[in-house]
Design goal:
Layout: H1 2-23, H2 25-43, H3 49-52, E1 53-61, E2 66-69, H4 70-84, E3 88-98, E4 101-111, E5 128-140, E6 143-151, H5 153-160, H6 165-171
Parallel strand pairs: 1-6
Antiparallel strand pairs: 1-2, 3-4, 4-5, 5-6
Length: 176
């Protein structure tokens, strides 16, 4: 009798653990998609873009007011980003998904590019910076079909001073 109770308790425990894993399945999928996103930006390999994104991707950097639609525009943006930020690393934080929508947090540590590109939000000082952000996503299958990045430009600009003083002043509208 004791053996039957023990086996029953173990079976119930295993079923409950299995139910928990199933409940987290959407979050696991979201974390996997988020990790593929971070790996893409960390690897700098444009050939892997459509392992992560759909070919009709709508990609937005909301902070900088940038919008890219479709494979060609997105690839040009990504290639420019890889070229400008030779030292760049994204660390994934929390993520959550419901249905075909989700978000993930990230921390970006990089050096301020290799050039001052007007309108880019960066000054080409070569100084390191770190900023936290969040990306909202729409998902088709296992790929991102809409990506919107949100982060705080002021956090980056504070880290670029004093070397980037003239560029920062231009970016915030204090000089021409």
């Amino acid at each position: 009798m004791k053996r039957t109770i023990a086996v029953t308790v173990m079976c119930v425990a295993m079923m409950l653990m299995g139910a928990h894993v199933q409940a987290d399945d959407a979050q696991s999928r979201c974390a996997q998609i988020g990790q593929k996103w971070a790996d893409f930006w960390n690897d700098g390999d444009i050939a892997k873009a459509f392992d992560v994104f759909t070919k009709d991707i709508m990609y937005e950097d909301v902070t900088l007011g940038l919008h890219f639609s479709g494979a060609e525009e997105f690839q040009a943006f990504a290639q420019g980003t890889f070229a400008a930020f030779h030292v760049s690393h994204f660390q994934l934080g929390q993520s959550a998904c419901r249905g075909q929508q989700g978000f993930f947090e990230w921390t970006w540590s990089a050096e301020d590019g290799v050039m001052d590109v007007p309108g880019s939000g960066f000054c080409g000082t070569g100084k390191p910076f770190t900023v936290r952000g969040v990306t909202t996503i729409a998902i088709q299958g296992k790929r991102i079909s809409h990506n919107a990045d949100f982060w705080d430009l002021a956090t980056v600009l504070r880290q670029l001073l004093p070397e980037g003083r003239e560029c920062v002043a231009r970016l915030v509208g204090l000089s021409e």
